[in-house]
Amino acid sequence: MKYKNVVLTKRGGPDVLQIVENELHTPTNKEVQIKILACGVGRTDIAMRYGYYPFSPKIPFVPGYEIVGIIEAVGNEVTQFRVGDTVAALTVYGGYSEYIYLGEQHLVKVPENVKIEEAVALILNYVTAYQMLKRIAKIKRGNKILITGVNGGVGSALLDIGILEGLDIYGLASKHNHDAITKKGAIPIDYTTKDWVRVIRKKEFDGLDFVFDCVGKSYINKGFSLLKKGGKLVEYGYPNFSGMLLGIFKIILLNALPNSKKAEFYGISGIYKKDKSTILTDLKKLLSLLKEKKIKPIINSRMPLLEASKANRILETKSVLGKIVLLDPTLL
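User: That's the sequence. What structure does it adopt?
Assistant: Structure tokens below.
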């Protein structure tokens, strides 16, 4: 039996993603065969496509950082899952496909009665946000925070979880996204027309408890300047490797300053490679919150699974609020 996936054939724009046909095989040992129902599309995929991401494999490969699917076959040593289970996995690559083979140690069961597209939006964006809020910042109810890219996938997740945790939130976003951000319960600031540092300083004389920044460059120093004593700047999700190195260098310099403020960089791929246990634990917690309707991922658009090239182009050329999700055509 044959199946199709979308392969990155060379570095470049969305057109380098090509649909290829493959042959299914029987899973071995602790491996499971998963029919993919949903795959998220994110800026990490774009970074991989241009060769900016340090954890991408050699070309050719199938992009796709996160999947939800149903198990159709299992290897003879699989003990934790069975055929018919719906599962989620942080794949880093391989998700733009009708099928994927993964070891059972990478899987988390997805509860019944949750929307597949919302479940897949948790795996990268919400786990990243949850870990930064709960494990790095160790936020407390009433903390005041700034999210610089609040309209993005991780930014909107930080907003959703932050509101649930009782935080006071400022979010930088272009004007057309302000209504949606306000409805969520945050204070939007238009970074394109206002001196956002001055705006926040006028509102928060004592400074902010935390700043979560995915832009880097000048935003690192600006965000750091808004912190109160004992506050922390958390950097994440830079669009390229050189930006990440520059950001880490700036963080080292900021941490050397004689004050009580701190800065830190978060990267989910590096954490997953070292020890996936906290990521899987937090994903289970988030899936429970989704089932209880305590969080609600913003889904920007739903597209057929193999239209990854089109989805990449949309994400790369437009301001997208929330998550673009590729779905099995039967779910559209």
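The chain is about 35% helix and 25% strand.
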